Amino acid sequence: MHLVYVYGTLKTGFPNHYLISDPENGIANFLYEASTVEKFALVVGSPFHVPFLLQNTNHGKGNVITGELYEVDDEMLKTLDKLENHPTLYLRSKIQVKRNTESDVIECDAYLLTNYKLELLTLPMLTSYNITTSSSYISPQERSSSETLKSVKLPN
């Protein structure tokens, strides 16, 4: 089993939560609401209004981010990797989180945007992806992954 931290459209009540809650995609057990230990930049970017957790590159920007921690099996991890276009768009990376009501730190996986355009750092930085910020989101089925890549990633 794998521990996975979600901060955007996979959270309960958001557009892609159906993937993590569908047993046909594998097993996903919600553990608890959690916050990152490290500060990250959480922005909504691209023409498709996608939430991105930017890999910390010591730009001195960001916030502690609130999200949800899940325990998932290998099948669900494959489903999440496909949604997140890992490793092309997002990179599944180890981060540390803690339960919002406790101080114990847990290491888990999260999907981070790496090698991104620096202009993403000029966007408003959120502490939590919420209903208001998700209202303009365009799902992967309605957009091209190459267009999303071009709008946020630096060329290789």
Automatic annotation (TrEMBL):
InterPro entries: AIG2-like_dom, GGACT, GGCT-like, GGCT-like_sf. This is Gamma-glutamylcyclotransferase family protein. Pfam families: GGACT. It catalyses: epsilon-(gamma-L-glutamyl)-L-lysine = 5-oxo-L-proline + L-lysine. SUPFAM superfamilies: Gamma-glutamyl cyclotransferase-like. The active site is at E84 (proton acceptor). One of its GO terms (molecular function) is gamma-glutamylaminecyclotransferase activity. Belongs to the gamma-glutamylcyclotransferase family. Keywords: Lyase. Residues 4-121 form the Gamma-glutamylcyclotransferase AIG2-like domain. PANTHER family: GAMMA-GLUTAMYLAMINECYCLOTRANSFERASE, TROPONIN C-AKIN-1 PROTEIN. The gene is LOC100179971. GO terms for cellular component: cytosol.
